[in-house]
Write a structure and sequence with these properties.
Blueprint (H helix, E strand, L loop, with lengths): L1 H36 L14 E8 L9 E4 L4 E8 L5 H4 L4 E3 L5 H9 L14 E4 L8 E7 L4 E6 L10 E6 L1
Parallel strand pairs: 1-3, 2-8
Antiparallel strand pairs: 3-6, 4-5, 4-7, 7-8
The protein binds copper (II) ion.
């Protein structure tokens, strides 16, 4: 009888333990999601500023951005941070973020950019770009600051040769 009781207690504590574990994991994921979507969150108190929209985008060795859409507020200064979380060299798997003006043909722009290695893969003297980061390789981070353009939806891409088809998204000013 005593053994049965012990087994039962063990059983109950295992259930309690596992369910608690599951819940805290869920909470963590939720926190993570909030941090990702709330671009002007309080997570970074020193940079909390109503006039600043802070955007963090990561890119990896699988040629992907972590976001397909980013949101900023109209009339704010945008601080866009690009983190390359891969390991590959900038010459093989370089990434940048280029935000294009409205009406620019993305495929055409990417084709012109692809031949401009000497110019960080941007067409020299281009008027098609609202803002862009530097081209970076694995483990690197880069930041660009600019004034948010007027309310609307803009395309952003990585302009490294052949990347834009997989590496593109919408930069939304609201
Ligand atoms: Cu890229």
């Amino acid at each position: 009888m005593k053994i049965l009781k012990t087994v039962f207690t063990l059983f109950v504590s295992v259930i309690l333990f596992t369910s608690c574990g599951g819940e805290s994991k869920k909470e963590k994921n939720q926190e993570k999601n909030e941090a990702n979507t709330n671009l002007t969150s309080d997570n970074n108190k020193p940079e909390k500023d109503d006039n600043l929209s802070r955007v963090v985008i990561t890119a990896n060795d699988a040629m992907k951005f972590n976001k397909e859409e980013v949101y900023v507020k109209a009339g704010t200064r945008v601080k866009l941070i690009l983190r390359h979380i891969g390991k590959m060299d900038v010459n093989i798997m370089g990434h940048n973020v280029v935000i294009l003006k409205k009406g620019v043909d993305v495929a055409d722009f990417a084709a012109r950019a692809a031949t401009e290695k000497e110019n960080d893969y941007l067409p020299e003297g281009t008027q098609d770009v609202i803002a862009h980061t530097k081209m970076i390789g694995g483990g690197q981070i880069t930041t660009v600051e600019f004034d948010a353009p007027s309310v609307g939806t803009y395309d952003f891409i990585c302009s490294f040769p052949a990347h834009y088809a997989l590496m593109n998204g919408k930069f939304i000013v609201e």
